[in-house]
Amino acid sequence: MKIILFRTMKYFFTVVSLIFAIFLLSCNNDSNPLIYVEKQKGIIPLHVGNAWEYTITLYDSIGNVENISTEYRQIISDTLIEGERWYKANFIGYYIANRSDGVWQRNRRFPYISESRELDDPYLRIPFPIELNESITINSETYTLLDKNIEVTVPAGTFSCYLYRLNIPVFGGVNEYFLYYSPGIGLVKERWDIDYDPSPYPIISYYAGEWTLSKFQVH
Known about the structure:
- The protein has 219 residues and is of the alpha+beta class.
- The chain has two domains: 31 residues; 186 residues, YmcC-like fold (Beta Barrel).
- Helix content is 16%, strand content 49%.
- The protein has a twelve-stranded antiparallel sheet with strand order 6-5-4-3-2-1-12-11-10-9-8-7.
- The protein starts with a helix and ends with a strand.
């Protein structure tokens, strides 16, 4: 009888331990930012082959179009760095990744040495998600979320966007930009008014400008 009772209790504790271990593993998976990221596309969807084409329009001080150009952005490749997947892009730095608090960036430590592959420590580049009217300062640049559901129409279509105001301090003033991001699509539009330049002979001669998404391909 004692032997049967002992075996029954041993079986019971074995089952309980197994259930507890599964519970802990489940909790760890839910809190793992890499797994979380795999379940959501982030404010910029990162996948090799994703591409965006933008039309850049610059205006003079009275609103006349001064210049129109095109920029092509793409995700070139991906790699694992310390167990985390990072994507090489031709914009926003050398490598970028989506984490649970936004888009992170890693730059090449010695960008002017083509053979160098060493990267700096990662840092947050675009906070997402954040609360309405919340402000987050990253390396002296301040993002403020002005709207979570603003409809924006550009040549590529009509999108529901997050609207950020980005303030960048410069000598003698602050440059102010408005960024329209659609989660799962990326940057849809960017605009600015009066790009500040305190010098008597400004290097740039335009006063305002905008980027608009003309076409894209995301996975």
